[in-house]
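In response to a reviewer's request, we include the raw inputs and outputs for one of the modeled complexes. The six entities were modeled together in a single run.
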Amino acid sequence: MAEAKELKQLFVVQRPPYKSENPKLALTHALASQTAEIYLDDGETVLPTIAFVGDGVLNALNNQKSMDHYGISSNENHVQMTLLIDLRVLVCKEDLEARGIDAGRLADGSALGADMSIEVVPFSEIQKEMEAADQLLFF
Amino acid sequence: MAEAKELKQLFVVQRPPYKSENPKLALTHALASQTAEIYLDDGETVLPTIAFVGDGVLNALNNQKSMDHYGISSNENHVQMTLLIDLRVLVCKEDLEARGIDAGRLADGSALGADMSIEVVPFSEIQKEMEAADQLLFF
Amino acid sequence: MKLGVILTESKRTEDTFERLQADKLSVVLAGNGIYHAVIKENGNTSKVLDKAADFYVLTEDLESRGFTSADLVDAKIKQVNYDGLVDLIMDEHDKFVWL
Amino acid sequence: MKLGVILTESKRTEDTFERLQADKLSVVLAGNGIYHAVIKENGNTSKVLDKAADFYVLTEDLESRGFTSADLVDAKIKQVNYDGLVDLIMDEHDKFVWL
Amino acid sequence: MATLTIGVFSSLVGSMSLDFAVKLAEAARKKGHDVNVWVSGNATMLSKKGQRSFKDYSSLNKTVESLLAEGAEFCACEACAEARGYKKDDTMENWQRHSMDWYLAKCAKSDKILHIGGE
Amino acid sequence: MATLTIGVFSSLVGSMSLDFAVKLAEAARKKGHDVNVWVSGNATMLSKKGQRSFKDYSSLNKTVESLLAEGAEFCACEACAEARGYKKDDTMENWQRHSMDWYLAKCAKSDKILHIGGE
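The model returned the following structure tokens for the whole complex.
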């Protein structure tokens, strides 16, 4: 029996949505963790957590109408799907506040049936996650 | 006999070299003005002028070793070729000074046999060129 | 000259914009430029809005990013869609640049 | 943690870098990040260099942009090439990030 | 009605500069203007044949095809395309491929231009 | 010796992120490390077959080919490739094409990773 081994990855998203594809790729790559096992040994898993910092917090807003205007799924929708598969999504509290954005404006996972919600946390918490993570990916 | 008509285009380059291809494309497009006549009527010509402002002035430095390290022709070389075909190349004086760059560090067209040299001019001069140009392209 | 400027970055990385002069100047906030129209950083409106100019925000990009007209930080910012932008470019200005 | 950071922008557009903490922190200035190592804007060295960290500049990128070791604004900045960068990543730090 | 030439240099799938250019071209065409679009640098990607539609990506082919059918001209920078491995066969139907002089000349022939640089 | 996995997401011909990734992979390989390279987003462009060399552009194919010959693994994001119109036939020889889970798993199996995001 192989040893159970969970590898923790922290995806730090620091750029605003849509200009570059990067923030969305962070979310689609996180979603792909569901099927990574086919390339891993028995008992091995990867567990990504998403942290939005700086202008990256703008990806987590609700009410994004990119599908209506451009025919592109919104980053809001991808945040909801990430919550739906029970991955943690952190949003930096200071960066939200600096931009005058109320936490009530954030994407709501429960609309898709997710049990998880976005966690608004101070940067110090995200720093701790960076230290705890086995691997660190800045998008 | 068609009326001689010269269209003035000002290419304003405001970004540093290499990160994006844009500054080099400004120079290659300027060089292409030499052959634009095949698409124009008799007597019509396009005359681009290049102006480097902001971080764009960094494109005009000499001694760029991108060919040695990456096998890519340097933007310095393209500036020299632009001078060689007698196009004006302006560099913003204030932006050079703000970065502590001496005008002696700029690309030297005469090394390729160009009669023209880079003109270091105040921003007000570039503003005038923007007004005088028929068309304005920011790279 | 009558100049139109399209700003698409949330943080400008150069100061060309501040120095630009025109007899008539219009600024269209599009792409991530729309954040200048809706976000106050630490309570301050964006310096972009200090420029003496007519300000527009592209509706499609405003709404794609989760904002509406109710979020505009200054009443002087007018909404424009692609249709209106065509008229701004074709009829109302001599030159239009994408900064 | 022992953290290495690669900075490739001449103007940072976010403040993650300033807040990052690590027991050992190394900063590699590559791409247009090399300008932090050679340009004083209005006589001031880049704030990036204020960070308590070991600083490196990637030789290939320094020279591609027309600068040499003679231009470095601070003696604490060490030159490193791709060969040396591999050792920084593989042997000397736990994690390495591209900001 | 007048002629608008749009040049797009930056980006591609995933960024929105190409979306912007195509939507602006469409809006201009609807108002009866003539439209030319030049793609250079990374934007050359717009000319690639066979792009598959995904909900996660902007999919501009259909709009480009109807603009072409209505007489809009789309042209890709030939050197930029070749450098990216896009041969003539890789190019969408009815697109042109020329050197950069085509763009300068189209600008010269147009009432208004919008050059989209950026990153 | 250890394993390094590099993920490249940004840019392509003309920007230097891909050059950086390929040169770093080459340097790591010379030191005896195993190397995996994942390209996603716009960097998928690196996998396109038939890129022509111009002095004005970085030309990375030859280096990638010798790295592949030495056992380095290169893999392109399948959805990203299809969205850009790169079919299987468009892909350079010896490249892999997989979904994003490949990258996460390769990271998990590696001693060190470098994820190159940026714009």
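As requested, we also summarize the result in words. The longest helix of chain F spans residues 17-30. The CA atoms of residues 14 and 57 of chain F lie 6 Å apart.
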